[in-house]
From TrEMBL:
Organism of provenance: Cytobacillus dafuensis (Bacillus dafuensis)
Domain Shikimate dehydrogenase substrate binding N-terminal: 7-89
InterPro entries named in the record: Aminoacid_DH-like_N_sf, NAD(P)-bd_dom_sf, SDH_C, Shikimate_DH, Shikimate_DH-bd_N, Shikimate_DH_fam, Shikm_DH/Glu-tRNA_Rdtase
GO molecular function (one): shikimate 3-dehydrogenase (NADP+) activity
Keyword Glycoprotein: no
Protein name: Shikimate dehydrogenase (NADP(+))
Function per UniProt: Involved in the biosynthesis of the chorismate, which leads to the biosynthesis of aromatic amino acids. Catalyzes the reversible NADPH linked reduction of 3-dehydroshikimate (DHSA) to yield shikimate (SA).
Domain SDH C-terminal residue range list: 241-268
This enzyme's EC code(s): 1.1.1.25
Length: 275
């Protein structure tokens, strides 16, 4: 029987996951379908009951449900539990098990182009959900130093305090971080600044950027944010958010099927969707 997979979110109409996963099911010859479902805030519990009743094989969870899904699942992977957010669910014999592949997807996508992260000094800009997932994943992996800079410093402090994995970390406001940018081997931009309608804005100035620093932005639309453009002008190597999106999806696909899929094909699929 055809297996059903899904993504639940609000909004969901523009999700690029269905075409990406359906293409994988087709190339691997699997009788499966991935469908987007528009689920509003108050309807998540009912939606999960329905999906369980019809025997859904697995699903992704996106905004605004990544945190509220947790009490509705049967088991949560320890890293996802500590992050406090789930983006991937697998149905194992009727039990729904939650994982977070956002942080691990980021790191796996990063090391394709910037290997050996453990002895590096890292700065994460922003303290939202994506920053938290990336911070926890890097702390768990034992990266030497992971600092966070954020407009609201207290939010960065909460991430560091709540992380169960010991990490060497300082938190900064944006101006303080601007002054010490040259100390970092890797800078990860996780705020929405740079996405339309903020496309011409920077979360912080790059005047002290060192050309040996690798600069990454988790935004993939546009593919080159102003932040990445400025970093490139300074001679730094850059990476956009396409790899994070593709690798979080690849890790979800692997949890559902046991196959780690061809990420170059997934990237091409997303680039086609972006037009
Ligand atoms: P996520 O989807 O990862 O949860 P988000 O909620 O869209 O991310 O973004 C949250 C982060 O972007 C926060 O760090 C936020 O800063 P505050 O904690 O000070 O609110 C940051 N952010 C959002 N808009 C910003 C802006 N215009 N300038 C600087 N930082 C901004």
């Amino acid at each position: 029987m055809k297996k059903l997979f899904a993504v639940l979110g609000d909004p969901i109409a523009h999700s690029m996951s269905p075409a990406m996963h359906n293409d994988l099911f087709s190339i691997y010859g699997m009788d499966a379908h991935y469908h987007p479902f528009h689920v509003k805030r108050g309807s998540l519990e009912e939606a999960i009951k329905g999906l369980k009743a019809i025997g859904i094989a697995g699903f992704n969870i996106t905004v605004p449900h990544k945190e509220t899904i947790i009490p509705l699942l049967d088991e949560i992977d320890p890293l996802a539990k500590s992050i406090g957010a789930v983006n991937t669910v697998v149905n194992v014999n009727g039990k729904l098990i939650g994982y977070n592949t956002d942080g691990s997807g980021y790191v796996k996508g990063l090391i394709e182009e910037f290997p050996l992260i453990n002895d590096k000094n890292v700065l994460i800009i922003g303290a939202g959900g994506a920053a938290r997932a990336i911070y926890f994943t890097m702390a768990e992996a034992g990266v030497r130093r992971v600092d966070i800079s954020n407009r609201t410093v207290s939010k960065a402090e909460v991430i560091v305090e709540e992380c169960p994995y010991a990490a060497n970390s300082n938190v900064y406001g944006m101006n303080e971080a601007e002054n010490i940018l040259g100390e970092y081997d890797l800078i990860i931009q996780t705020t929405p600044k740079g996405m339309a309608p903020d496309s011409f804005e920077l979360p912080l100035s790059l005047h002290n950027l060192n050309r040996d620093t690798f600069v990454s932005d988790i935004i993939y639309n546009p593919l080159e944010t102003k932040f990445l453009g400025e970093a490139k002008k300074k001679g730094a190597r850059i990476q956009n958010g396409l790899n994070m999106f593709v690798f979080q999806g690849a890790l979800a696909f692997e949890k559902w099927t046991g196959i780690f899929p061809e990420t170059s094909r997934m990237k091409a699929n997303i680039l086609t969707q972006l037009g």
